[in-house]
Fold this protein.
Amino acid sequence: MLILLPQAIVDGLMIGGIYITIAIGFSLAYGVMHIIDFAVGEWIMLGAFLGYYLTEWTRIEPLFYLPVVFVLFGLIGYLFQPVIHRVLSGKKGNPLLMALVFTFGLALMFKGLGLTIFGFYSRSIPSNLSAGSLSLEWGNFFVTIPTIRLVGLIYALTITVLLNLLLKKTDFGLAVRALAQNKEAAGLMGINAKRTNSWVYGIYVGISAMSGVLIGCTFSISAQMGAKYTVLSFFIVVLAGMGYLSGVPWAAILLGLVQSFFLIYFNPGYTLLAVFVILYAVLLVSPKGMFGKGV
Amino acid sequence: MKNKKTLIFCAIMAVLLIIPLFTSDPFVLRIVTECFMWVGMAITWDVMAGYTGYLNFGHASFFGIGAYVTAILMMKYGWSFAATLPAAGLAAGLAAVIAGLPTLRLRGAYFAIATWALQLAIMQVALVLNITGGPDGMRLPPFLHPEFFYYLMLMVVAATFLLLWFLLERAPFGLKVKAMREDESGAMALGLNPTLIKTEAFVLSAVPAGVFGGIYAYWITFIDPASVLADIITDQAMVMAVFGGLGTLIGPVIGAVLVYAFKTYFWAYLSDYQVLYLIILGAMIALTVVFLPNGLWGTLTGYTGGKKSLKKGVGLDDASVDDTVEKKGAEHV
């Protein structure tokens, strides 16, 4: 049992890496636009299928398509955001509630669309890296690291660093942070809230879709996978504190560890229940996330 | 006005009561019975979404809990059907208290996520436990009396409707709930306990759903996680309520009947395109939100839930009500 411990920890870190990327864009979108996007899992699913078809047609390593998927879905998100903005700024009823309902409807629609086009089968994106793995050994302990998961972790860290640089070092990042803090004051300083929001939403959709390709190379993809990833990104974002970006990597890695330990030591069927219990405990004890810095 | 409403209600009930006298076609009875069930699911979902302003994305969990409690008590412990229904409602209510207490203190987004996660978690548990039969589901003894289930479902749904109507539209509880929805800090200043009221409303919405689940289990005689705990149950109840009009009791009833009629037609004539149904449901929610934020009933009658109830309850003039509602929109959820 103990002999599997390093493997469980390494697996957890690798899975956590992928979770970072699915949650970080989501957290960004929440922090700036205050929108809870229930369609996050569906963006991942659509991105994964785009990657799948591109790879099937051209037979080129899917990882090269990451920028293509990002740009394409970024554009879709950018063009799509005004519709959400319209719902959010509606005068009738409760706009934020309506926005939640709206994205839920979108998620349902995308899922139906996915099922219509891609069918009910599970697939995986054929990557040259899928088969390879690194093995480490010292004493009694040994660890196997699939190359693709290592790539996933590197990709996740790269995205995190890039996003951090974008937010902390550029004028655009300054505008985004200003908007997140105070929308009206930011508007008075000459920040175009609508356009900045569109960019943020575009970046979020792009990152989610790109992570979908990576998930497709690592695990399997199907039209129904969306709900699972939506719940996982919610879990990470709530655990980290809503809108608190720096907490996301830690929460994601914690989730990865929970998952790998359940997979190795307990019944994997109880993973989601464990996730719910942790979510419940965090909400009960510290609703603002593990670090108490959420909004 | 009040007499007119009572008259319409009695007329509809009378028509529904005599339907089985004219037709004993099990197909028709089954369709109408299921329609009653969806009316019940839609109005109970609306208790949370329309009256308290919290979105419950896991309504199916209560339905499923009710169904499984009935099935387990009947099959493993030999209870009679009548005795299992209160137990089903109780179990669903208990689940609501446990899930609601930590999350209802927070803003709506947390609640929405937590209820959805709860549904997925319960589905996972139902898939792995022995007592629920795992993915194979459970079989119940067949009881082939369509009329019995027709009347039972009708009575339970009508009783739920009347109970909700009384509590939310006539009793002080409804005013408390609405006050809390419109301005939570204001309601607290008046000495109300928002978390308690919200939890009560959540239980009020969960218990009938559990009972419907119990009836469903015995009626269909077969349940499995994919049929009683599926997302589609929540989604459908939600479309019905949102399409009909949130914050009213009539709206979801109308929405449920229309959406259910559409669904039946769709499945009967276009069954090759079943997944299209999901797209249509999703598109319906999205389009309703963008173009009919008050739903069908709200748009037709100009009844916008919140504002009118506020005016009625607190006696504010139009301008200040508009003001509160708009300010509220900025900070709620």
In short: The CA atoms of residues 239 and 278 of chain A lie 9 Å apart. Chain A has a mean pLDDT of 84.
